[in-house]
User: Which sequence fits this backbone?
């Protein structure tokens, strides 16, 4: 039986299709092999790169350890040299002091310079060398100024307290001036205590603290006068009129507003404690110091940082840190009274320099 023509063509076509598919499969296989070979090379390069990075890290770690070891040894050497120098200086100073003490004349000796030369020099040349008509004043404030620094400080503090209380009285701040006056009197009395005569050695601590606070009292008085009589706007205007840098003006403004804000927070804490019946009364904080520390001091200290930051941000928000010319609603200028006060204050100094008084 003869084969139809169309069947032969179909068979030939099927053979071509199979051949084409085989070619495609071969190309795919070759391409996949190339991709695998490329992928293998990439992994090898990656492994080589990771190994190089590890070696580099190891080298850096070794260099770091070597640097730390060297610095540690250098610090040990410098510390040893420093200790040796300290010991040498201390021994030298002790030897010099002991030699000086051994060469001093005996106490009460008639040949002692203090018994024959010093007192005579005070009397004979006191007026010429110190310019003080009063010999005692010349001795305390000139010849023995370092020796009598404590006495001079007490006199200076008393004069400053009286002088700084006058502006408070002139500003009608009677209560504040009275509180500072009573505080100064109490501190002065505590500073004059004689613990040895009273048989209470621990009073030395109280006396020393009282003297220290007394020396700082003039600063407290001036600060209270500034805070109670000067507004922040007036202070800023005055500072700018004096061409003070903004880096100084802004912290000063923050300080002026800081203490009143802290005082308001303290009053609110005390009111909250009174509502809860905790350490109520005027002496409640003294009777319960632990509660005072827990409920007042710690919250105030924690809040102080936030208050200072908020005030600084408020000052900058109002344009205090901006460059250029600033305007102010507060007008500050020298008046006749200001010039008269400056003349009255400067006149005694000018007369003293001129030798009139």
Assistant:
């Amino acid at each position: 039986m003869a084969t139809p023509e169309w069947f032969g063509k179909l068979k030939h076509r099927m053979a071509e299709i199979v051949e084409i598919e085989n070619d495609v499969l071969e190309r795919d296989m070759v391409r996949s092999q190339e991709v695998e070979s490329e992928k293998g090379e990439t992994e090898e390069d990656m492994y080589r790169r990771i190994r190089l990075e590890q070696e580099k890290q190891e080298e850096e770690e070794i260099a770091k350890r070597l640097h730390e070891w060297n610095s540690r040894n250098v610090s040990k050497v410098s510390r040893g040299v420093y200790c040796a120098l300290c010991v040498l200086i201390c021994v030298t100073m002790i030897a010099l002091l002991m030699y000086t003490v051994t060469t001093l004349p005996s106490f009460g000796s008639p040949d002692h310079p203090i018994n024959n030369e010093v007192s005579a020099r005070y009397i004979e040349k006191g007026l010429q060398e110190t310019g003080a008509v009063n010999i005692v004043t010349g001795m305390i404030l000139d010849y023995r100024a370092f020796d009598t620094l404590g006495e001079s400080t007490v006199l200076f503090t008393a004069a400053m307290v009286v002088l700084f209380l006058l502006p408070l009285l002139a500003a009608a701040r009677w209560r504040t001036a009275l509180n500072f006056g009573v505080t100064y009197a109490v501190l002065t009395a505590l500073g004059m205590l004689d613990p040895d005569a009273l048989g209470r050695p621990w009073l030395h601590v109280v006396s020393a603290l009282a003297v220290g606070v007394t020396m700082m009292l003039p600063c407290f008085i001036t600060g209270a006068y500034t805070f109670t009589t000067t507004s922040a706007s007036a202070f800023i205007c005055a500072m700018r009129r004096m061409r003070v840098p903004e880096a100084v003006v802004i912290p000063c403004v923050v300080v002026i507003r800081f203490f009143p804000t802290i005082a308001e927070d303290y009053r609110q804490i005390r009111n909250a404690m009174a509502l809860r019946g905790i350490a109520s009364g005027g002496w409640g904080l003294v009777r319960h110091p632990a509660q005072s520390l827990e409920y007042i001091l710690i919250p105030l200290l924690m809040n102080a940082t936030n208050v200072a930051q908020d005030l600084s941000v408020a000052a900058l928000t109002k344009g205090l840190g901006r460059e250029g010319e600033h305007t102010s609603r507060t007008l500050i200028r020298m008046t006749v009274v200001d010039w008269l006060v400056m003349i009255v204050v400067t006149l005694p100094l000018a007369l003293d320099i001129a030798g009139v008084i």
